[in-house]
From TrEMBL:
Name by which UniProt lists this protein: Trigger factor
Region described as Disordered: 440-473
Subcellular location(s) of the protein: Cytoplasm
Coiled coil: 131-158
Gene Ontology MF term list: peptidyl-prolyl cis-trans isomerase activity
Catalytic reaction equation(s): [protein]-peptidylproline (omega=180) = [protein]-peptidylproline (omega=0)
Chaperone keyword on record: yes
Listed NCBIfam families: tig
Role according to the record: Involved in protein export. Acts as a chaperone by maintaining the newly synthesized protein in an open conformation. Functions as a peptidyl-prolyl cis-trans isomerase.
Protein source organism: Chelatococcus albus
Cytoplasm keyword on record: yes
PANTHER family named in the record: TRIGGER FACTOR CHAPERONE AND PEPTIDYL-PROLYL CIS/TRANS ISOMERASE, TRIGGER FACTOR-LIKE PROTEIN TIG, CHLOROPLASTIC
Domain notes: Consists of 3 domains; the N-terminus binds the ribosome, the middle domain has PPIase activity, while the C-terminus has intrinsic chaperone activity on its own.
Amino acid composition bias (Acidic residues), ranges on this chain: 444-454
Length: 473
């Protein structure tokens, strides 16, 4: 094998590789010789099949494997001999000439191809001694605990038949209804049901549906006219006007709200005090997670400000494609266009490319820091993460588990966030972090511009694209 470098431009390297026909012939003969002891062919004793006959039967399929193995071996040697750290898998371009390909497959011509390698940039890690961060913390207020318990009580409250002649449904009442929905006079799939319960004012039905049932009487038939939201999950219904013929079968009023030990027992707690302690702990975890998110973002901002180096173009393109795909999906979900956000696709793309570049740059920096610090991910940590993901799909846990077990790429996606959090912990231990007590509103205050750009050098104005899209990006 002979490899000649034909291009060295930034992080991109290109080599012309020649594998002589004689080398291919040797490899093919060796493979066929090993094959003759394994195959069974009528008319020949085991191990006695002539190589010429095997070549006529299996030559092309075996040669395909020989060529693939030769390419893999050649690429590996190029990487090792040139001490390259690849950003992506090598991109191989074979000759287009049919005559050349046929000659290679017959081992009568040299295998000549071009391989393009994109490598990771090299950079020196910076000193973080001067970095100072503020970590926001908030105390859980008793009023918030009480409000949370009250919400739980409302979710668990009972209803009783609303008595009295000609009683009317009011907000907060629970109705049992039958309905038949039509669009342009035609019934549609999923538009009809019987014995459905709806709590007026809960917002669980299409906007406007519940409002039009306020004042209804038991046994009354009403026509409810609504419009499906543009972002409705069923695309064939999104944005369409619909009419529902509703029959009120029963009206129930909510019973008195009881917040006591019996409520706690309904949630598996011994007493109301125990329930409040569990709520306090749960809210505290939410506060801690938010504080962690914000201090992590501040740390990444500090890192981003310290580093500037060339990025592998293909990695940036891949990341940008991921970001842009999320943006488009989010805008479709909201039923919006770039024009609705006061911008255009051409104006928005450069802003989101900056987000992709920042993510790639920080990813490379965190990977380098983690490697230098010898940060490892244990099998137990990965297993726990997969189990946690599987628990999100009740009844399908085994399918999820098998998917990750059989899919190395998916498993790598589980490892990545674990590794990142460990590197962040490692870095936070090296910088000065000062805690600052703030209110809940301050802790959860959203700055759309910073969320959108993740604090990088290219901050995106809120009007230039959907804030929700930016946060997801």
């Amino acid at each position: 094998m002979q490899a000649t470098q034909t291009l060295s431009e930034g992080l991109k390297h290109e080599f012309k590789v020649v594998v002589p026909a004689a080398e291919l012939e040797t490899k093919l003969t060796s493979e066929l010789a090993g094959l003759k002891d394994r195959v069974r062919i009528n008319g020949f004793r085991p191990g006695k099949v002539p190589l010429g006959h095997l070549r006529r039967l299996y030559g092309r399929s075996v040669m395909a494997d020989v060529v693939q193995n030769a390419v893999n071996e050649a690429n590996r040697k190029i990487v090792e001999e040139n001490s390259l750290k690849l950003a992506l898998e090598p991109q191989v371009v074979f000759p287009e000439s049919r005559e050349e390909v046929e000659a290679v497959m017959e081992a009568k011509g040299d295998l000549t191809y071009t391989v393009t390698l994109e490598v990771l940039p090299t950079f020196e890690l910076k000193d973080l001694a001067g970095v100072e961060l503020t970590k926001e913390v908030a105390e859980v207020a008793e009023a918030e605990i009480d409000a949370a318990v009250e919400r739980m009580a409302k979710q668990n409250r009972t209803f009783s038949a609303k008595e009295g002649k000609g009683v009317k449904a009011a907000e907060g009442d629970r109705l049992t209804i039958d309905f038949v929905g039509t669009i342009d006079g035609e019934a549609f799939d999923g538009g009809s049901a019987q014995g459905i319960q709806v709590e007026l004012g809960s917002g669980s039905f299409i906007p406007g549906f519940e409002d039009q049932l306020v004042g209804a009487k038991e046994g009354e038939e009403r026509t409810v006219n609504v419009k499906f939201p543009e972002s409705y999950m069923a695309q064939h219904l999104a944005g369409k006007d619909a009419s529902f013929a509703v029959t009120v079968k029963a009206i129930e009023a909510p019973d008195a709200l009881k917040i006591d030990d019996e409520l706690a027992k309904a949630f598996g707690m011994e007493s109301l005090d125990k329930l409040k302690d569990a709520v306090r702990e749960s809210i505290g975890r939410d506060y801690a997670a938010q504080g962690r998110r914000k201090v992590k973002k501040a740390l990444l901002d500090a890192l981003d400000a310290q580093y500037s180096f060339d990025l592998p173009p293909s990695l940036v393109e891949q990341e940008f494609a991921n970001v842009w795909r999320q943006v488009e999906a989010d805008m479709k979900e909201q039923g919006k266009t770039f024009a609705d956000e006061g911008t255009s696709e051409d104006e928005a793309r450069p802003e989101y490319r900056k987000i992709a570049e920042r993510r790639v740059r920080l990813g490379l920096v965190l990977a380098e820091i983690g490697e230098k610090a010898d940060i490892k991910i244990t099998d137990d940590e990965v297993t726990r993460a997969v189990v946690e993901r599987a628990r999100q799909f009740p009844g399908q846990e085994k399918l999820v588990w098998d998917y990750y077990r059989k899919n190395p790429q998916a498993l790598a996606e589980v490892r990545a966030p674990i590794f990142e959090e460990k590197v962040v912990d490692h870095l936070l231990a090296q910088v000065k972090v000062t805690e600052k007590t703030v209110s809940k509103d301050e802790l959860f205050a959203d700055d759309d511009e910073e969320d959108a750009s993740e604090g990088g050098e290219g901050k995106v104005k809120a009007k230039k694209a959907s804030s929700k899209s930016k946060k997801k990006a």
